[in-house]
UniProtKB/TrEMBL annotation:
The lineage of its organism: Bacteria, Katanobacteria. InterPro entries: HAD-like_sf, HAD_sf, PGP-like_dom2. This is Haloacid dehalogenase. It comes from candidate division WWE3 bacterium RBG_19FT_COMBO_53_11. Pfam families: Hydrolase (PF00702).
Amino acid sequence: MNLWVFDLDGTLITSGIDYARAVFHWELMFINRMEHRAPHYDKFVPDFLGLLRESEKELFKTMRAHRKRFPTSMVEAYRGLCRNFGMSVDPEIERETWEIGVSALSEETYRNRGMLPGAEEALAFLQERGDLIYCVTAGDPVVQWMKWRGYNLRRFFPSQREYRVIWWDKLRTLKKLRKLHRDKAAIMVGDSIGSDLIPAAKAGYLPIYIPHPSVWDHGELEKEPPPGSRRFLQITQIVSEYQSLIRPTG
């Protein structure tokens, strides 16, 4: 029996497309609302994206993964756009901007979308072997439990014992799990060097790095995995490389 800990977003499921969809919806809403008053799209679209990126970076320092951060950033970006183009803030557009930002986080969307390719196969493989599997995810608890319900993650992580939601730093939780299962090989699988792999290495796990095609970077991105890490292109490589991964660690 071995200990496996998985990150959630970008490792088992995808969420970046939800933010992208919200941005596209906002652009259409803005054009429809402004009509002939709208600035040319090759001006306001890059401006809005730049303002949104800067707002996200700034709010991330204080709000981290709070569910209100993204809609707040959307509203701030809209207000900044108005300043840049000498327009008055329209309360109705501002309200719709907030609602579009909130729509990026939807349990209904999660219910209608599958996990990342190979994720279910890899988790089922580990279950069949009797290994212990946990998910340690950083984020707003309300949103992360929406994902747990929407993706039916109870199949693999039945309760809050196996599905652990933290606000940010995973090191403490990883150390606790390692201490509980110190006699087992311990492996951590994630897509973030800074929030997954580095704390995993510090806690005595074998870190497995599976980079996601879209990187959510708030300016604090770590570039190099810790020594001894394994790098996979697909999560299903856990199945083919299983025997080489379960050597004792820590």
